[in-house]
Design a protein that fits this description.
The protein is of the alpha+beta class. Helices cover about 35% and strands about 10% of the residues. The chain has a five-stranded antiparallel β-sheet. Helix 2 (about 40-55) crosses helix 9 and helix 7 (about 175-195) runs antiparallel to helix 9 (about 240-255). The longest helix is centred in the last third of the chain and has 21 residues, at about 175-195. The chain is globular. The chain starts with about 25 loop residues before the first helix and ends in a 17-residue tail after the last helix.
Amino acid sequence: AHGGESASEAVITATALTSAEGATSIKDEIVARMPEINNSATYRKARYMLQNELGGASAVGDELRFSGFVDSATKVLTTGEAPFNIFARLGSGAQKQDGMEKEQACLGKFQDRFLVCRNKPENDLYWDTQDAGMIGKVSMSHRHRFLTTKRLEWEWFNALVFGLVPTSRGGMGLAAAVEEVRAMKAAALTYAKHAPGWSQNVGLYFNVFGHNNVNSLFLHIIDLNCIGASFQYQAFKNCPLDDVLKVLVEEAESPSSSLAPEPRALSAAE
């Protein structure tokens, strides 16, 4: 999926950004400073850097609003065609993927909160390609799905800002963020348990802002028993859910130890 494409051109992929379209200055700065965000240490550092050096969550919210990804009035992610934000569209019901009803049912009690999404059929088909021009675009495993949320509050667009929008500004807070990520994990594992053919060797990964290519939430669900070359290709930006959860729990238990207060007042986007 690409930030500003038409619906006919949108593709759910897991590639790195290849152009400046949809990118923000904070995104570029994070990539320049942190070429890898793929474990608890780098995720912790990215959040610390955001809070202490890059203007905090409010600055990310401002940039999303300026680029059209957040509605200034409602403070939620936009779901139109310009900019085209694929997972926000799918989560909101503005767009549907045909033939996913049985897979959605595999979420069990979580299907009212989350949505299972798939890659383009050809990207699934060539998951084990050795073609250098396709690696990084195709699915990372023979069985690879995405989990997104049906919540459109902008703080859920990416793991970088989970829990960082203050409750006084309508945010969930760190404790609630911890519970939400735990629910995402439970939902994804419930899906893998009930979906036909899946092993129980499942990897769950976020792409943290800077290394994301879509400005709405997606969690990779990967069957690790049948990975392809794209999995290793994207190792620099696949941050395990458990590592994200570890840092959020740390912050919730002792927020002053890792995060500084917001350096300025939050914008209207929050």
